[in-house]
Fold:
Amino acid sequence: MVVFGGVPLFYMELALGQFHRTGAITVWKRICPLFQGIGFAICVINFYVAFYYNTVIAWAVYYLYSSLAMTLPWSTCNNAWNTPNCIDHNDVNASEWSSHSSSPAEEFYMLNVLEIRNSSGLGNVGGIKWQLVLCILLIFIIVYFSLWKGVKTSGKVVWVTATFPYVVLIVLLIRGATLPGAWQGILFYLTPDWSKLLHTGVWVDAATQVFFSLGPGFGVLLALSSYNKFHNNCYRDAIITSSINCFTSFMSGFVIFTVLGHMAERRNMAVSDVAKDMGPSLLFITYPEAIATMQGSSIWAIIFFLMVITLGLDSTFGGLEAIITAVMDKYPELLGRRRELFVLGLVVICFTGALSTLTYGGAYVVKLLEEYGAGCSIIAVVLLESIAVSWFYGIHRFSMDIYAMLGHTPGYFWQSCWIAISPLFLAFIIVSFLLGSGQLRLFDYTYPKWATFLGYAIGSSSFLCIPAFMIYHLLSLPGSLKQRLRASIKPMVDDGIATQSSMQMTVFP
Structure:
């Protein structure tokens, strides 16, 4: 998925943004006006992500505050929120552990952070937990003052939020490798199970992870590359950035599985049993539980959750900057000199939209938005992006744009991916998701059937922006339907950009 989907589309978006120097809405007006709805769909998806993703960061902030104690509150069963079922793995043998037992870390997350017992499910999420509201308010204050002045301000902040996690990862990797049983986790991590390739769910998960990790489809690459110089080597940027990204993910796996191997040895269990929950449970139950067993556990917890917060802030910066650039480029006469007010309004909307995820049953809302708000929708958007660029704008015209910037056209591999390979991969993923999507579960809760319909409504609400704008655009044009269609798929590159392109191409005979 990285080779045939992620990197080619990463390169494509960098080149589009850099050449046309505009955001995720206006860029489609220039290359294929009929597909401007893609930009609006991207903005809607980014809103959904902002509604739930920052809540996850808020949980990490709550953990960070709790880590300031001399004894980590999730290391014992002696707290007010603990139940009689709470049993510390360190105090009992594996044979004494039953299906009704729960660890201190699990009860801290479920009963103290989420207080999920005060909610009966998605139909009754309960009241809002004010401690989490304060956590997410702090996050949005940081986000606002990082974005309000533009990419020059956020760029300086990212120097910290992007480099600090690497320092922490290296420190945690060294510490994890010295733990007893770490080799079991590494062996499990590096041993492939080839039969899993026959499961379509694995491919769907791979595609979703690649696009969330590299960022194509979210408008981030279009927005940030639009600030590049015209002759910036975006091809080099695409290769280096995506390679570093994949290496970081691979290294992070060692950080996680050394600790999981250590926990498997302590519990006298298989690594596969310890690692069966790879969602928020891994981040907020399994890993904190492992940290609690280390000497100086409070220090390790503070370092770990600072890393989680900085990583989350990076993603939030990118997603909101994509919306800001797209909307301000679309309506420059209205918002041109009001960035601070616009960013403030955007942050308020995201904060308000996140309130449902800050309830006692907020974890159920987070899971629903994560599954349907961005997963399949972002893959469908990227599919239409590749079709609009390579089939309607034209692969030859796009290659000439790259030639104007870099002095060489993209190779046959990249062109083949844009024209056929990536669209086929993405279409397969979408069909597999729609056919194989089962009933949603979280913890011991099974979502009702109406939640599935709600999820599909959320997912389709962003994608419907595309056909809705197509209809609106065709109705707004004069002439016959054939004339309207012809005008809608013809690139509307203004004279300034066209002249710039021609001038740049003369530099490279």
